Amino acid sequence: MIDENRVKSMIRLAAYENGEGGKDLAVRRYSCRDYVVLSMVRTFFMTTVGYILLVLLIFLGNLTAFMERLNDIDIIGLVTWILVGYAAVLAVYLVITVGRGLHRYQQAERSTAAYEAELKRLKKATEKAS
């Protein structure tokens, strides 16, 4: 015979998995360290691409002025400033990413605690009925 309480519990669990809890459960598949490192790698690549595009856009926007003063420009100094700027931007974004990743993981832990407790309760009820 079908236990009505177990069916209601399964419906609640499925609603959580398909609704608000789907993202939290995806975060919880990783350990905290892995989740933060994965976020940092993603940020590294996106920041690098963004910075290259920004430098390229500035260069192309000032191409005429750059070509006129090509002999007077200190190329090593310019490249140094570009790299220092990149390192500073990357450092800021990585610090923000670590903080955001830790916060997001802790939030997912809190959010999935009730789900996991309900899952354990359902498992015990199923074992008890068998």
Order of helices and strands: HHHHH
Q: What overall geometry do the principal axes of the alpha carbons give?
A: rod-shaped
- Rg of Cα set: 26 Å
The count of DSSP E runs of length 2 or more, i.e. the number of strands, is: 0
Q: What is the structural class?
A: mainly alpha
Poorly predicted runs: none
Average per-residue pLDDT, rounded, comes to 90
Biggest β-sheet description: none
Number of continuous helical runs = 5
Helix content: over 70%
End-to-end gap? 11 Å
Beta-strand content: under 5%
Q: Any overview of this molecule?
A:
The protein contains 5 helices and no strands. The chain is mostly helical and 130 residues long. α1 (4-18) runs antiparallel to α5 (75-129), α2 (21-28) packs across α5 and α3 (32-61) runs antiparallel to α5. The longest helix has 55 residues, at 75-129. The protein is rod-shaped. The model has no long low-confidence stretch (mean pLDDT 90).
Quick overview:
The chain is built from 5 helices and no strands. With 130 residues, the chain is an all-alpha fold.
Key features of this structure:
mainly alpha; 130 residues; single chain
